[in-house]
Amino acid sequence: MSGEDSTGIPQGNGPGNREIIEALLFATDEPLTVRQIVDIFGMLEEGEKPTAITPDDVLGSIEDLNRDYEGTGRAVRIVKVAGGYQFATKPEFALWLGRMLREKSKRKLSLSALETLAVIAYKQPVTKPEIETIRGVNADYVLHTLLERTLVAIVGRAATPGRPLLYGTTREFLKHFGVNDLSELPKPREIDELMAEAEFEVEKRMLQELEAKKRGESEGDPTGEKGEADAGGDIS
Length: 236
What we know:
Layout: E1 3-4, E2 10-11, H1 17-27, H2 34-41, H3 55-71, E3 76-81, E4 84-89, H4 94-101, H5 111-123, E5 126-127, H6 128-135, H7 140-148, E6 152-157, E7 165-169, H8 171-177, H9 188-218, H10 225-231
Antiparallel strand pairs: 1-2, 3-4, 5-7, 6-7
């Protein structure tokens, strides 16, 4: 029997709307917007009957798929990234994915690239001289690398003498860092707090080790191992 069920998904020999959307999002190498998905449904071959689908239908299908994945304990979800939707694995699988990708170190960004990317992300649109002033080093090579990887793009020219190029981040930048838009980036104040907390933990650990070493020496243990065991808590 053909027709549609209560969810609006066609029934019969062909795939339903929800399954088509699932296939599209699984196969895409970049996020698909709701409008793009609707437009794909509108691309008809000769003699093919049109399928009526609205943006709300697409969003409803995505919600249904995610409920199915949750109910069956699947490792993936459909997430919104850079204004579109694509598949992503759940956070608890990050360790295993990290092991899989560890060998691809050449794809990782260097510290200088990350620093330059941070300057562009927070100051954009920004010129190369401004980037170099902030970082204190030449930015030619790292900008070339970021442009090659499409993490940044030339977005115009500054209205200053020489009309230097202006740089800004791209949708690929949003995808790379898993954010939907720039407003989701941590605020500079939050970064300062995290850095201060990390520095405090390092200093705290160093003081603990120094105190443990002193206790060990006072008790006739020049290596400080006994003191370190005491500092770490009871040993059962």
